[in-house]
Structure formats: structure tokens, C-alpha cells
Fold this sequence. Notes:
By secondary structure, the chain is of the alpha+beta class. The protein has 15 helices and 19 strands.
Amino acid sequence: MPVLLALLAGGCGFASGSEDRSPVTVGTTDRVTSLDPAGAYDAGSWALFGNVYQSLLTFAPGSSTPVPDAARSCGFRGEGLRTYTCELRPHLTFANGHELTARDVKFSFDRIKRIHSDQGPGSLLDTLQSVDGDGGGTEVVFHLRVPDATFPLKIATGAGSIVDSTRYPADRLRTGDAVDGSGPYGLATYRAGAEAELRPNTRYTGAVKSLGGPVTVRYFADPDTLDEAWQERSVEVVGRQMPPAEIARISPTDPGVRVVETTAPSIRSLVFDVRDGAPLKETAIRQAIAAVLDREAIARDVHRRTVDPLYSLVPQGITGHATSFYDAYPKPDAARAREMLREAGVAVPVRFGLAYSQGAATDQEAALIKRQLEATGLFRVTPQRVGWQEFQEGYARGAYDAYCVSWVADFPDPDTFTTPLVGADNALHSGYSSARVEKLIAQARQIYQRNRVTEDFRQIQKIVAEDVPMVPLWQKKEYVLTTSSISGAEYLSDGTGIWRLWRLGRI
């Protein structure tokens, strides 16, 4: 083993002596679905990707404007927001020592489109038509099907991760536990669902100016198990998710503990299968559910007020936030719900299944939703807890009548709460599409000044409140806990989708 580790460290450009430094240990309940960027579109996978892979652009702490990372410069060319060009930094190298060129960038985007994994980020790149890369050179040109002012934001996410074209299959996902990227860290070892050991990548060249020390990320099955590890101090940093009761008890004045409240917008919604033949296909049924749900009770009784009730797709703090669901369904009203169903000729009780997976207090949340709906006499709900991998595969193939899922912003723009959630071929695979919504999404994408898109997104949210393909439940800020000996936690996460493990250090 020591020989293997020594060879691995030398081959991957790990910082000399980093194995001798004590790694900062980070705990999270987020799961890594895949180590291949073409096969994952979830917060846990992308958090890791941002450390071991490099994108053309990234986000500096506290900024919503992408800055060059693997690129030296990027920008739209000509008029119409349909041609986007990036010039790579010179002498880019993957952690394995291979040269990184425009060919690798083109390859990385092409394979996402070609593979089109149900769990992959293909829907995020729906406006991308083709990519030109001048062989082994440094210029990359993106040709878009339609104008898309949000494209620079999208390629700064995990969907823009650049892989080594000699190590990844062009037409299928890579298997195994190895990564060939050019990010600030190399992946020394990985055990799925358990642990990832990261070591500084000395070959990295990009926006990060100071490589961090070694980090070990430990993955926990649920918030209670993570809480136990925190209480025992077997982890020094805690990301998502701690039990709500524990978060509510923690005080910033507690000795030996630092609490950082981040602005990362995270929402949770109840999503419906609206395909033909589904139990919730009828719009009136979904409207009746929206008219009955009591978000205040969910926030108070389940999440101990660590979340805020949410009445729109776009959360507070993001351009275009509205209260469309509150305007349409201002308070829980069983009588109104009954009348909706009667007028639509729907026989009651309506029976459907409710699936859910990872997150804080998910069992209690599903149980309360079931009680709220069944108390009206209009519904019979069968909750089902599903493992994360099975859950993702299930909703991708339309296996659930309804399901609860959390959504963390891909990038700091309202588009990340509309296109992936209610756009055609959305990432939630709900079967929903609306010509009116598509028109407004396309219209907003043509506006480069994002402070001018407010009305378009408010109209989208109004339509969604009418059609009810999903019901927003709550939003929360993220909390990061550290021991008093750890620095840099305030930079770890800030709503841009980047998990900056390299900013963590010891005091």
C-alpha cells in the first residue's frame, strides 16, 4: 500500500508532503451519484466535481458573475447571444500530467449531449447546438440553437466539467472510482457512499490562487448519523444536512463551535407526475392539493423554523421572486379543495403514492403531508422512503405519482429554478410542459441584463401556480458548522453552486 500511494501521488501531481499534513475532515449527507460529469446532476456530485474537475468559468466568493478558470477569457461574439467563445489559459494540464486542450473541452460537452443520461445534466445544456475546438489549440466556440444569456452561468457549473478525452469513453459513462480532471484537488481514494480523500493538485492553473491542504469528505446516510459524528468530533466541518432540532439548538456563542449561515438558496417541492394515466394527471386534483397544504405547519412542526414557507418557484433573494402560490391559495382550505374536485367530476378519495429520499426530517415531513391531505377526506396517500440512487432512477422513469425533492441553485439566476424544474424535458421528469412557460423562458434568455427579467419570471410562476405541476414547500439557508480550529468556512458555499474545500484550513 505505501508503494502504491507513493506512485499515485507522483502520477497525479499531488502536493509534496500533503500526505503528512492532517486532512480537514468534512461531513455531509449529500450523495455522489456518479464520478462522471456526464452522469450526475445533483448537489452532492457537483460539490465534488467543483474540486476535482475544472470548468472554463467559475464563481469567485460572493459574486454572481462568472470569472475565467480554465479559460483565459470568454465572451459572446457578434449579435444575438448565439455564439460564445472562450480562449484557454496556456499550458493547462490534467492532474495525471496529460495536456488539456480545446479538444478535451469539446469532447466533454459533446459526450454529455451524446450520452444524454437520465441522471445527467443534458437538460441544462438544452440550448447548446455544437462545439468547435481547434484540434490541440486553445480556442473553443459554442454555437447555440437560440439566444441564451445564461449560458456563461451554465458552463461555470458541474455541467461544464472538463474531462481527459483519452480517459473517458465518448459514448458511455465511465465506471470505477477514478477521476481524471484538472481541478484544485486530485482524488486520491474514493469509497462510494463512505469517503473521498482529496489532495492538492500542484498541476492546477486557474482562478484559485492558493491551493488548500488535504481534505477528507465523509458521506453519511442520514442527518442523525452525521449529528452523531459531529457530537463525537470525528468530523471537523459539517455541511448539509444536520437534524433541524440540532440546528435550532446551536448558538453562535457555543464554545468551541463556529456557525456560518450561508446564502445558498435551497428549496423543497412536492412534484407531480402529470403524464396521461397518472393518478394526478387532472389539474383540479393538483390544485386541490395546493389548496390544502399547510406550509407554516411543515416549517414549524417538522423543521423547527429552520426553513421558511415558500410560495413560489423562485426563492426569496433571487431576481423574480413572487408569491404566486400564496396569491392563488392563500390559506389551507379543505372546503375549496372539495369544490374544485366536485366541479371537475373527480371521485374522492384520490389515491396516490408519495416517494421521498434523503434530507433532514424527511420521514416526519412525509407523514405530516399525508395527515394534512387525508384530514380533508379527499385523499389517501401512501408514503414510500426510497434510497437516493433508486429514487433518482425512479423519478427519471416516471415511477412515482408524486415525490418530494430538494433543489439547490445551479447558479445565481432565476433560470435555474424554472428551466430545469418546469421547462420542456425538465430535470424532474414530471411530464409537464407549457407553451406559455417555454415562450417566457426563451424571452428571458435573450436579455443579457438579468435585472430586467423580473416580470418574465413572475409570469412563469403565475402560470405554474395555475397548472400546479409541483408545489413549492419551503426554502432554507445552509448552515456550516466547524470546530473553532478551522478557518475558511464562510467561503465554503454562497449560492453559486461551488463547494470551496480549498478555502478550509487550520488556525
